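Sequence and structure are kept together here, with a separate record for every protein. An example record follows, reproduced without changes.
>
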Amino acid sequence: MRVIAGEFRSRRLKSLAGLQVRPTPDRLREALFSALTARIGGAVFLDAYAGTGAVGLEALSRGAGSVIFLEQHREAVRVIQENVRSLGVEARCRIVRGSVRLYLRGQKADMVFVDPPYSRPEEYDLALNILSENPAPLVIVQHDSKHVLADTYGTLRRTRILKHGGNSLSFYEPAV
């Protein structure tokens, strides 16, 4: 796994063995950040269910001001810490080991990326309902293309869907 573009282009990232963490494929990350080009500069980016931290580090590489990684699994947090250290970006990152249920309620981010394990479909509704109470300006959800998300969650409205192979990215913004 590697950073695709930007400040850390082509830098290798560590990953976890096994099926516990499903890294976002390079091509899907490329599509995501192509869609975010105009909004990423200086943004506070929250990577929820961060896994290896690849999406958050890609955001940082492409101009995000800072990144918050939210992950509850100890080994994944260790890998995120190693990846952050290897890029020398500790001052621009905050790693939170904890539950999405607790942390998302008080989140203060410009963009929130949500990518729960596909084996836990209930996490999608949980996270989106929590985020609808205090919505960030943009919430992006990675999900299996067969998993249908609602068009609305409280004040959040889906504005766009990008499909890439078996994966989809749903973009939500607060209704105005």
Observations:
- The chain has a mean pLDDT of 92.
- Residues 74-87 form the longest helix (14 residues).
